[in-house]
Amino acid sequence: MLSRRHVSDPLPPDPNSIIQPHTTIIVGLSGGPDSVCLLHVLCSQKKELNLQIIAAHLDHEWQESSKIAAELCKNMCNNLGVDLVIKKLSELEFDVKWNGSQEEVGRLMRRHFFQSVAQQYQAHAIALAHHEQDQHETFFIRLLRGSSLKGLTGIQKKDGLYIRPLLHWSKNQIMQYLHENNLNYYTDQTNTSDAYLRNRIRNHVIPALHATDNRFEKNLTSTMSQLSLAHDFIEQQTCKIMQTMTTPQGINIALFLDTHTVAQQNILLRLLIMCGISFTPSQKLFNEIMRFLKKSSKNKHTLYQNCLIKKDKNYFSIEKLIKIDKNL
Amino acid sequence: MLSRRHVSDPLPPDPNSIIQPHTTIIVGLSGGPDSVCLLHVLCSQKKELNLQIIAAHLDHEWQESSKIAAELCKNMCNNLGVDLVIKKLSELEFDVKWNGSQEEVGRLMRRHFFQSVAQQYQAHAIALAHHEQDQHETFFIRLLRGSSLKGLTGIQKKDGLYIRPLLHWSKNQIMQYLHENNLNYYTDQTNTSDAYLRNRIRNHVIPALHATDNRFEKNLTSTMSQLSLAHDFIEQQTCKIMQTMTTPQGINIALFLDTHTVAQQNILLRLLIMCGISFTPSQKLFNEIMRFLKKSSKNKHTLYQNCLIKKDKNYFSIEKLIKIDKNL
């Protein structure tokens, strides 16, 4: 069971100290309740932890009213004495080739923007305002789409540059903090629309579960914590198993084929990530690689046009194909 | 993704062959659609697999109408030429000391009855009619209550004497089978009442998820299959780790304390089960044992009044305390 904080504490209890002293932190600020709370919580620790805080606001320009949010962010940062970087979506140098939902494109754009601000300020972390309800909604989004164990462990508190200091705060705690500190925020109207999967979960699925058993939120947090632990153990064991079959010539095929499917899948994922290959983990991809390793008489197989799997009698390896631009 | 069958096949595809030829199988028969379908499906395989099939019906006597179900079972078994054992709840020699719900007590009573019939006929298996929707409901029951990874893997297709040949059938497939074969069944009115947690999940939670994304059922089955695989890997790894620390003097404490929490929890569960100790796995129980192993200066600790953990400097072991009846 993850611990919960009292609203009067300036920061949530954080055993792994995701907020390090003497660091520069970019805060993703939409102007909504969650990010307004996050910015104030971090500012309340600014002196004590010697933090440099920079707020970053991306104006999506999807609605006229988004100007109001940008204005609110300006005033707030001005009052707090915090630097604010604002950019309009149309000003962003980012080529979207993504076929996902508008919501997903928005997320990718924000990430691109935050990362460019982080680079500009040589920041140590980008703080996002995800909280316990976001975590629960993510669980159900992944459950509805079909998920691995890892998917059900939800959003991570720390994931590369990104940190999520409010991940254990409930929405109620955030609203209470805003109320007690008399803070203004902006409410995005698209947030309540059933057009988005996340909102359908928030508006229909979570209330149905809560009505069925009102301890549901507490128990889901506890379950997700147990799943995280199980996933962590699997990662640890996979790492050990991988070491036993790794040689300078590559992965020992006989040992690889003799190990558990879960370890095989995790080892292949690790190899693909280590090579810097972009891919979507799927059963189809796993089956394709296994077919090649088990049956194919060929000694090379290409995946995604940029990934080469090579094997000889005893070993296999994965490498990224680098395309050479003939115009150069 | 688990495979699905066509209704016209006499049996669901079953890679692990849970129905063994030349065996005696007790079929739990309530008279409801699921168990009527199961009985007929098994009877259709009777000759080919040389099965001896005995139906077992427990009359719960909770409602006057339960007599109708008993009568329906009698007629059906008579027509099929299947032996039927009927018992009334009041005739059962079973001392209930369970504080759970009426539903849970009913389940325990049925299990006791089926096991006594299995013993009487020296049966090899007890077949129950759980199907895919039961599996999904079980997932949410456990999620609502807070669950380990194992809990979320759901009901097992084979679990000791119990087998569940319809576990991959959807409710629709069962209803279609009954319709195509012109079979009568009894509908239990309590099955639709919101008084039971399972029914609240069936009537409110599942429809909300289905309305959010109609691929939900298919994807949940796929997710549960992935969780089962992950759980299986954890069991395999735990077993290997346990072997490395087991000696004739007991479990090596230093090695045990040095291993991952998930392995520690699983090893303790295995030790308790191996000793035949009845317990409810909980974080509290785990913490109590860990506190004793890590900190206590004592060399003995009693759990549940019938379980003794002993330790010396290097090793620990768990044993069941056997109470001696002084009147004997």
TrEMBL record, chains A, B:
InterPro entries: Rossmann-like_a/b/a_fold, TilS/TtcA_N, tRNA_Ile_lys_synt, tRNA_Ile_lys_synt_N. The keyword Manganese does not apply. The keyword Cell cycle does not apply. It catalyses: cytidine(34) in tRNA(Ile2) + L-lysine + ATP = lysidine(34) in tRNA(Ile2) + AMP + diphosphate + H(+). It is found in: Cytoplasm. It is an enzyme of class 6 (ligase). Pfam families: ATP_bind_3 (PF01171). Its EC number is 6.3.4.19. It comes from the Bacteria. Residues 25-203 form the tRNA(Ile)-lysidine/2-thiocytidine synthase N-terminal domain. GO terms for molecular function: ATP binding; tRNA(Ile)-lysidine synthase activity. ATP binds at residues 30-35. GO terms for biological process: tRNA modification. GO terms for cellular component: cytoplasm. Keywords: ATP-binding, Cytoplasm, Ligase, Nucleotide-binding, tRNA processing. SUPFAM superfamilies: Adenine nucleotide alpha hydrolases-like, MesJ substrate recognition domain-like. CDD domains: TilS_N (cd01992). The N-terminal region contains the highly conserved SGGXDS motif, predicted to be a P-loop motif involved in ATP binding. Belongs to the tRNA(Ile)-lysidine synthase family. Ligates lysine onto the cytidine present at position 34 of the AUA codon-specific tRNA(Ile) that contains the anticodon CAU, in an ATP-dependent manner. Cytidine is converted to lysidine, thus changing the amino acid specificity of the tRNA from methionine to isoleucine. PANTHER family: TRNA(ILE)-LYSIDINE SYNTHASE-RELATED (PTHR43033:SF1). This is tRNA(Ile)-lysidine synthase. The lineage of its organism: Bacteria, Candidatus Babelota, Candidatus Babeliae, Candidatus Babeliales, Candidatus Chromulinivoraceae. The gene is tilS.
